[in-house]
Sequence to fold (245 residues):
Amino acid sequence: MEKTTHFGFSQVPEQDKVHRVAQVFDSVASNYDIMNDLMSLGIHRLWKRFSIQLSGVQPGQRVLDLAGGTGDLAAKFATLVGEQGQVVLADINAAMLQVGRERSLDRGVLLDYAQVNAESLPFANNTFDIITIAFGLRNVTDKEAALASMLRVLKPGGRVLILEFSELKIRPLKPLYDLYSFKVLPFLGKLIAKDADSYRYLAESIRMHPNQETLLEMMQTVGFDRCDYHNLSGGIVAVHRGFKL
Fold:
């Protein structure tokens, strides 16, 4: 029997999900930064800043930014690791990676680039001091495989930071949050990116992503140590952190 997985609220053949997610990000790539600012009222920048603080990044370290998109997080890391360090901006989607490369060059930021599948990272064991994935894990089909792959390429003593939409913990706000997610976001997508369906999928994918406690258990199961998480904006997003000891 053919294995299926969720694509938003729909069930699709497992091998089709990567293609469907790629179509979403092919569509939104050129407007990705503008939509992020609109959707979060610019607060996504504060969420990413907090993630960088939790990373404890030091000059000379090697950083892998998975699902790095347009490269805003990678650019910040590049300034912190300096010329002796290395930042790899990685994404499974070629269109997103191209936009990230163009934006990085415009910023005058020197990065390395890699088109990769997070489930099977093409790097040697114990390569990176820090791995980040911001708003990308929920689009991965086999999240356990991706977490295990991150653990493998992380150096002993290194850490992973997962910034992702999660479960809102302020119950009275849930009806308003649902209205915003399923009505306002697709409207903004149609207005700005001429694509309501992709932003409807993004809203649905948030609801299908493991909540804070479930993701923490998944990280522990694959072998990360000293795992914790920090709720931001009432749990709309959370930053999970784990170490390879």
